[in-house]
């Protein structure tokens, strides 16, 4: 468990090199480690997300269920990413998304209340919170723009380019849902690219 916390603290230190050892120790004292199995939920739709989780091992997906009852994948997150529906987390309102483990996953977690306490202790931690928020916003904007400006083929190629390590860790049905294409359309795209 301590090794998992150290992985997270290293990430914090890299993003906020001005943190003192004392500040980092205060932060570390607030962290917990949570291990979930494949198919377990980090958060379920309609529930309030009480903790934010930094993934040190494993893979998750965020999804919602549409009006027809279909699961719609909105993101995949692996080692070094955060498990969160961030707008719901920071407002402490029920999440519209479920976050489910696709593999056994280890999270280093910080509660909402402890995060607020940490922010009050040091401006360096507020900077770290801003970095997290900016990364979440950047990913969301890229996702929105991919559906506005890119074809399904371009989204597929961008996914392979940006997430090469995830390609063999996710099911084809989850990938299709994420890309917003039917399975047969993705098969045609892959066949077309194989012949280029």
Note down, in words, how this protein is organized.
It contains eight helices and eight strands, in the order ααββββββαββααααα. It is elongated and about 55 Å long. It folds into two domains: 2-136, Jelly Rolls, CATH 2.60.120.10; 150-196. It has 196 residues and is of the alpha+beta class. α4 (112-121) crosses α5. InterPro entries: cNMP-bd_dom, cNMP-bd_dom_sf, RmlC-like_jellyroll. This is Crp/Fnr family transcriptional regulator. Residues 35-121 form the Cyclic nucleotide-binding domain.
Q: In DSSP terms, counting alpha (H) and pi (I) runs of 4 or more, how many helices?
A: 8
Structure summary, number of beta strands: 8
Structural class: alpha+beta
What is the number of independent domains? 2
CATH fold name of the largest domain: Jelly Rolls
Biggest sheet features: 4 strands, antiparallel
Order of helices and strands: HHEEEEEEHEEHHHHH
Radius of gyration: 18 Å
The CATH class of the largest domain is: Mainly Beta
* Structural shape: elongated
| Estimated helix fraction | 40-55%
Average pLDDT confidence is: 93
Please list the strands of the largest sheet in the order they lie side by side.
1-8-3-6
* Regions with little confidence, pLDDT below 50 for 5+ residues: none
Second-tier CATH architecture of the largest domain: Sandwich
Strand proportion: 15-25%
Protein name: Crp/Fnr family transcriptional regulator
InterPro entries: cNMP-bd_dom, cNMP-bd_dom_sf, RmlC-like_jellyroll
Organism: Spirosoma profusum
């Amino acid at each position: 468990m301590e090794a998992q916390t150290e992985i997270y603290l290293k990430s914090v230190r890299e993003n906020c090199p001005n943190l003192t050892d004392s500040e980092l120790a205060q932060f570390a004292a607030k962290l917990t480690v949570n291990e979930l199995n494949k198919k377990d939920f980090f958060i379920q739709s309609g529930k309030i997300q009480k903790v934010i989780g930094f993934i040190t091992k494993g893979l998750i997906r965020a999804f919602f269920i549409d009006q027809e009852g279909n699961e719609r994948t909105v993101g995949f997150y692996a080692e070094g990413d955060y498990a969160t529906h961030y707008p719901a987390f920071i407002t402490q309102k029920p999440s519209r998304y479920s976050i489910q483990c696709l593999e056994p996953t280890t999270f280093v977690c910080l509660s909402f209340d402890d995060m607020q306490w940490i922010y009050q202790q040091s401006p360096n931690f507020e900077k770290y919170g801003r970095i997290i928020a900016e990364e979440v916003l950047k990913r969301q904007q890229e996702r929105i723009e991919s559906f506005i400006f890119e074809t399904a083929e371009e989204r597929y190629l961008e996914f392979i380019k940006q997430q090469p390590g995830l390609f063999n860790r996710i099911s084809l049905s989850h990938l299709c849902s994420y890309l917003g294409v039917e399975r047969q359309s993705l098969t045609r795209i892959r066949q077309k690219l194989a012949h280029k």
